[in-house]
Specification:
- Helix 1 runs antiparallel to helix 2.
- The longest helix is centred in the last third of the chain and has 31 residues.
- Helix content is 86%, strand content 0%.
- It is elongated.
- The protein has 69 residues and is mainly α.
Length: 69
Protein backbone atom coordinates (compact mmCIF):
# COMPACT_ATOMS: atom_id res chain seq x y z
CA UNK A 1 0.00 0.00 0.00
CA UNK A 2 2.87 2.41 0.67
CA UNK A 3 4.29 1.92 -2.81
CA UNK A 4 0.90 2.41 -4.41
CA UNK A 5 0.40 5.61 -2.42
CA UNK A 6 3.86 6.90 -3.37
CA UNK A 7 3.29 6.25 -7.06
CA UNK A 8 -0.19 7.79 -6.89
CA UNK A 9 1.25 10.84 -5.13
CA UNK A 10 3.72 11.28 -7.99
CA UNK A 11 1.04 10.80 -10.64
CA UNK A 12 -1.57 13.07 -9.09
CA UNK A 13 -0.04 16.48 -9.90
CA UNK A 14 0.73 15.44 -13.46
CA UNK A 15 -2.82 14.24 -14.08
CA UNK A 16 -4.27 17.32 -12.43
CA UNK A 17 -2.05 19.61 -14.50
CA UNK A 18 -3.27 18.03 -17.73
CA UNK A 19 -6.94 18.28 -16.75
CA UNK A 20 -6.45 21.83 -15.45
CA UNK A 21 -4.81 22.89 -18.72
CA UNK A 22 -7.64 21.41 -20.75
CA UNK A 23 -10.16 23.12 -18.51
CA UNK A 24 -8.40 26.47 -18.79
CA UNK A 25 -8.40 26.26 -22.58
CA UNK A 26 -12.12 25.51 -22.47
CA UNK A 27 -12.76 28.39 -20.05
CA UNK A 28 -10.76 30.89 -22.04
CA UNK A 29 -12.47 29.85 -25.27
CA UNK A 30 -15.90 30.40 -23.72
CA UNK A 31 -17.52 33.82 -24.10
CA UNK A 32 -17.57 34.71 -20.39
CA UNK A 33 -16.85 37.86 -18.44
CA UNK A 34 -13.58 38.11 -16.51
CA UNK A 35 -15.35 37.86 -13.14
CA UNK A 36 -17.16 34.71 -14.24
CA UNK A 37 -13.91 33.12 -15.41
CA UNK A 38 -12.19 33.94 -12.11
CA UNK A 39 -15.01 32.28 -10.19
CA UNK A 40 -14.98 29.27 -12.50
CA UNK A 41 -11.23 28.74 -12.06
CA UNK A 42 -11.71 27.89 -8.37
CA UNK A 43 -14.38 25.36 -9.25
CA UNK A 44 -12.15 23.89 -11.92
CA UNK A 45 -9.28 23.47 -9.45
CA UNK A 46 -11.59 21.56 -7.12
CA UNK A 47 -13.06 19.48 -9.93
CA UNK A 48 -9.70 18.51 -11.40
CA UNK A 49 -8.43 17.61 -7.94
CA UNK A 50 -11.47 15.43 -7.33
CA UNK A 51 -11.08 13.67 -10.67
CA UNK A 52 -7.31 13.24 -10.61
CA UNK A 53 -7.04 11.60 -7.16
CA UNK A 54 -9.06 8.46 -8.01
CA UNK A 55 -7.52 8.27 -11.48
CA UNK A 56 -4.02 8.35 -10.02
CA UNK A 57 -5.00 5.68 -7.49
CA UNK A 58 -6.28 3.41 -10.29
CA UNK A 59 -3.25 3.97 -12.54
CA UNK A 60 -0.61 3.44 -9.82
CA UNK A 61 -0.75 -0.39 -9.75
CA UNK A 62 -0.58 -0.55 -13.54
CA UNK A 63 2.82 1.16 -13.44
CA UNK A 64 4.18 -1.65 -11.27
CA UNK A 65 3.16 -4.42 -13.69
CA UNK A 66 6.01 -6.05 -15.52
CA UNK A 67 4.05 -6.98 -18.66
CA UNK A 68 1.34 -4.43 -19.25
CA UNK A 69 -1.31 -5.25 -21.86
Amino acid sequence: MRTRFAIAALLWPMIQAVFFGLGMVALLAAPLEASEIMAAVWWMIAATGAVSVPLAWVLAPRLRLRNRP
